[in-house]
């Protein structure tokens, strides 16, 4: 118990933190980690409330559907409405913020987390657009599959979480200028166009419709995608095999 | 209420912004997985574009939806292979810094 | 005589009988109940104070000429204190009478609380139905529906419904807005989300205790420690907020929420009854599978952000396991979808309304096996034993949540137990008749539409209470398995997934598809064959259930013998 004040000697250089740290050292460092400790978990309580608010906010996209067609659950997207506008700006703003987070983060795991937030926001946007099937697929495949794959890749290829390599300032500025120019041109063009035949309440696609189209009109791409996935599985297994004699 | 109606242009601008941010990530990250993350952002923006057109260009269209489904499937596939390549890069070079993968550089 | 024993007790210095121990050690027979004299003392004090009040009244009127301060001090004060003493005496005496009754009937109280909650939900749905039934498009703005088409005022409501008092109209007025109704529904969902882990954790500790020949929590709340989870919750809230020094602070704080929020989101699409669903999504099943898949990200981030290699190992193993077992889980869930033809959970539930033999698990042997495959895969997906390698205390300290303490740690357990409930709910909906009772719903159609008829139909044939009971049954099986089976290694886990469950589910999917195709193509002889198979499989199910009930009854009958020396005759409730 006399080791409460000895945390300073355990602060090694950050690049060695993840290797060879034994548990006693961890026990000595962790007790003095939090400065804002008043004996009460004030931080924890505040974050509890924040987490519950976040929970409520993430549920409200489901509220944006103005109902379903005759109780079958097929989504109907109604035009206008303040709720749809509020949700779009919240979700769209969230997606852009997470995109900025991805651009600005220097730590690869933080970048992956921001990507996860961006994927979640885009999934909620799909729900807002009455493409519920696609939203669910996005959550299952992208957020719960591809992102996990990326994070596994991060963990298998990093020596330390805090080592970072970055571009020089010149590259950052030139890349920013080019991307900003591209964004400006795109926005200028898009806002100047009036799309014909746009608007109105649109019933979303039911799963039966999607299935029917996939097996009739889009059968060839479907089968090709199946073959592609098989090839990808074999290729990935081959790429990450253990070399004989390793 | 008309100025608050969310139209097609809103979604297109959003996906353009996501695309540009993904492009910036792809060009400025030296970590190979970081580049992959940028690719994922770009693909997401494309799929969002598909679905936005789907919803706003008249009733009964689901071609955009199916396009987006294929985009997601293909994105997952190429992420798998790309992560395999990154792992091999790490095995050979002990780093995923793409600037160091320069042995073919002229 | 009692006074004599009290003096003797006080003087014997064996151990301190502090005032607290008579509450915390309820079965310690020798402890004096110090408050047993309280009612008589309080009545005596009340009489004394009334005398003082009477004397003070006389004094105030005679000598002080009705001085208000004198009245306050000498009359009002003593009278109020006397009344307070009498009320306290009544409470203590009443509690002394009530407590044994409560202890005896505590089990029934718990059960009736469950039933009462369902009845409360039903009454709410009746209220909402009545409110929405009287909504009419507004005269000026047809896009909005308000009460009786008038502007949104209370005066109109009371004018229209003359029997309704103003305060009741004030309470019901907000309900005409869909968003208010949605928030009330969300409140119910959050209540469900909170209550489930609290009682499941208590129940798990009791079940674990009984399986291990001990009692489990017994103290907090007097009857079998039913309030143990509340005490634990208060303790966890007051713990020091500890974050390891080199840990990634924001990610460390974010990870528990990423684990908990998906499980709460699953309640948005999970139906408790044919009309008891927050949002009836036509991709409900996919939505729930999708949000359950997000838990993996929370686990990985928790392990990574802890800056602790044991946490990272636990997180990697956990992520491997969860992601791998999502595949057989999804494929096993696709099998009933093929039979019903919809991803809509409400439609899948309604397709099983024909009684026990119509339940999807008993329609063909492929679905029976698929039910077992799904259950095993869902155990792995919830990181429950025998797949609880990520929490293997003997190996990894505590796996990915080693560095977490206090309320953050409890969020991980909220997520685990709520996920258990959600996957049990999916098992019930997809395979075992959702919210239908073993009796066919058709038997109740001719009863009419009155309130009593509706209630009886909900109780006997199809209602949310049956769904909750089935989920509770599956929860019990999960708890039971955890303390019965040994843990399996990570390579055995992955072997079981990829080399056993995945090919098995693929074969079952193929067989089931063939069966469904045959049912649609060949009629006549095939129909009788399928009904015979349904009866056979249903009978196997009945045998299992009756066997389970028999074993439980045997255990209950011999509960004292099984616990051994620890059960005393003064243990509460027994």
Description of the molecule:
The complex is a heterotrimer of chains A (246), B (106) and C (574). Chain A is mainly alpha-helical. Helices cover 62% and strands 2% of the residues of chain A. Chain A is built from eight helices and two strands. In chain A, strands 1-2 form a two-stranded antiparallel ribbon. In chain A, helix 4 (108-128) runs antiparallel to helix 5 (132-156). Chain A is globular and about 55 Å long. In chain B, helix 1 runs antiparallel to helix 2 and helix 2 packs antiparallel against helix 3 (63-93). The radius of gyration of chain B is 18 Å and the shape is elongated. Helix content of chain B is 73%, strand content 0%. Chain C is mainly α. Chain C is 68% helix and 1% strand. Chain C has 21 helices and two strands. Chain C has helices at residues 2-11, 21-24, 38-62, 68-104, 106-133, 154-160, 166-172, 178-211, 228-237, 249-269, 284-305, 309-340, 345-350, 365-381, 393-396, 407-431, 451-460, 464-482, 490-521, 525-557, 559-563, and strands at 135-137, 145-147. In chain C, helix 3 runs antiparallel to helix 4 and helix 10 runs parallel beside helix 16. The radius of gyration of chain C is 30 Å and the shape is globular. Chains A and C meet through helix 1, helix 2, helix 4 and helix 5 of A and helix 8, helix 10, helix 11, helix 12 and helix 16 of C.
List the helices and strands and how they pair.
The complex is a heterotrimer of chains A (246), B (106) and C (574).
Chain A lengths: L22 H8 L11 H22 L12 E2 L4 H23 L3 H21 L3 H25 L12 H24 L9 E2 L3 H9 L3 H21 L7
Antiparallel strand pairs in A: 1-2
Chain B lengths: L7 H21 L3 H25 L6 H31 L13
Helix pairs in contact in B: 1-2, 2-3
Chain C lengths: L1 H10 L9 H4 L13 H25 L5 H37 L1 H28 L1 E3 L7 E3 L6 H7 L5 H7 L5 H34 L16 H10 L11 H21 L14 H22 L3 H32 L4 H6 L14 H17 L11 H4 L10 H25 L19 H10 L3 H19 L7 H32 L3 H33 L1 H5 L11
Helix pairs in contact in C: 3-4, 8-16, 8-18, 10-11, 10-16, 11-12, 12-14, 12-19, 14-16, 14-19, 16-18
